[in-house]
Amino acid sequence: MDSVADPVDTLGGPLDTVLLQHNFLTYLIKSGEHYSDREGIALLPHDSVAIKVIFDSSAVYQTKQAANQKDWNKLIGFSDCSTHHHTNSIRAVWRYNQERGIQLGAYWYKNGQRYGKELKTVQIFDTVNVVVTAKDSLYTVRVDDMLFTEARDCNSSAFRYWLFPYFGGDEAAPQDITIRLAHIYPIRQ
Is residue 82 part of a domain? Predict the structure, then answer.
């Protein structure tokens, strides 16, 4: 069931008028791991995911190999087109840049090809609004006021599954990393 009637991917829409109190869940990625402690297979019967996210000082990290510092860590998203997420998917992602702070971006697979685009830089303890959508013929990722769009290879999806926080690339988390997410749409507890 797509959420066409729920315009969570528009600025100033219902996402911005949701109750001020949100229940944040803490996702822990342990040192030496890729997956968070809340990882698991969960179907997503919607075409949009909206969250608020807060990174703490554990998001400040240094990779062993300098080139891996530019690898995107996955934040939230979902598979698409009834395929595996390495075939078709859309996600919001993050990485730490020593000079600038926490970079947030869009990350997607289209027909097995991987792409990424930086959208915004934030600082630790900032509360950031993120919306990831696959509607009609477009992917969209909104990070606060920055909006990214990209053409999809399908117009609907009968089967989607959540993609939760994941560290890496090539390297696993160099230390315990905690990410606080409030699931605004759909609600997840």
Answer: yes
Instruction: Give the whole-angstrom CA distance, residue 82 versus residue 84.
Output: 7
Q: Does residue 9 form part of some domain?
A: no
In-domain check, residue 167:
yes
The pLDDT tens digits for 176-188 are 999 999 999 987 7
* Cis peptide leading into residue 169 (ω within 30°): yes
How many other C-beta atoms can be found within 10 angstroms of the C-beta atom of residue 108?
24
> pLDDT tens digits, residue range 40-61?
778 999 999 999 999 999 999 9
Structural domains counted in the chain: 1
Domain that holds residue 141: 14-185
Radius of gyration of the chain from Cα atoms? 15
